Amino acid sequence: MSVQLPVPLPILQGERCLLRALVPQDAPALVRHADDPAVARFLFDGFPQPYTLADATAWATHEARSGDFGWVWAIAVDGALVGCIGLRPEDGWLRCNAEIGYWIGQSWWRRGIAGDAVRQVTDWAFAAVPQITRIHAPIFADNIGSQAVVRRCGYVREATLPQSAIKDGKVIDRVVWATYRTERALRDADIGAALAATAASAMERA
Q: What are the percentages of helix, strand and coil residues in the chain, rounded to 5?
């Protein structure tokens, strides 16, 4: 069953990458980048490994669009998918929170692409989804690179969660990083562009 999100998925253009909806044609690129133990190492335990063409096709054609994972974008460079980023809003009394998660193919690491994508999604969420006041990223404790990404994007370290998840049969620690609407309001974000992108996406789907 699909989950109805409060606003449609926009197209977001950053300095280093474009964020857009996944399409079936992304499946081969998904396999190329996601079928890699170095990428899967820091992703949730259910992330397929090996990552097959069937997995990629299911993700690109309907799973990423279902709403079950929140808003999901392809991270594209020069038109080609190099990773994915998602923002999953919580509900009920926790609906002011949203969780951000992302991955980049290994051949595109250390080029500033993940940080560009995180900044785009964060700024858009605070501009376009008024109920979200906190965005958090629970990151594996030994994923130093990903923690550096969110730190450079203005996220702050909230807490360490000892023995809080299982990966490959082992209990692991995680570190929670977060950013808040009140802090984001203090820095210059192109709110008009974010809202315009959301409105344009809505019109395209009408």
A: 35, 30, 35
Which token pair is 41?
């190492």
Residue of 191, 156, 194 whose CA lies nearest to 176: 156
User: How far is residue 76's CA from residue 69's CA, in Å, rounded to a whole number?
Assistant: 19
pLDDT grade for 13, boundaries at 50, 70 and 90: very high
Looking up tokens 């799973």, which residue turns up? 63
- Number of helices and strands (H, E) in the chain? 7, 8
Type of residue at 57: T
* 10: Cα within 13 Å, side-chain hemisphere: 22
| Residue 123 near residue 198, CB atoms below 8 Å | no
User: Is the per-residue pLDDT at 87 higher than 70?
Assistant: yes
Q: How far apart are the first and last CA of the chain?
A: 21
Query: What local confidence, expressed as pLDDT, does residue 88 receive?
Result: 97
pLDDT of amino acid 204: 62
Q: Over 50: is that where the pLDDT of 1 sits? A: no
> Using alpha carbons only, how large is the chain's radius of gyration in Å?
16
pTM: 0.87
Per-residue 3-state assignment (H helix, E strand, C coil) for 96-142: CEEEEEEEECHHHCCCCHHHHHHHHHHHHHHHHCCCCCEEEEEEECC
Q: In this structure, are residues 125 and 135 in contact, taking their beta carbons and an 8 Å threshold?
A: yes
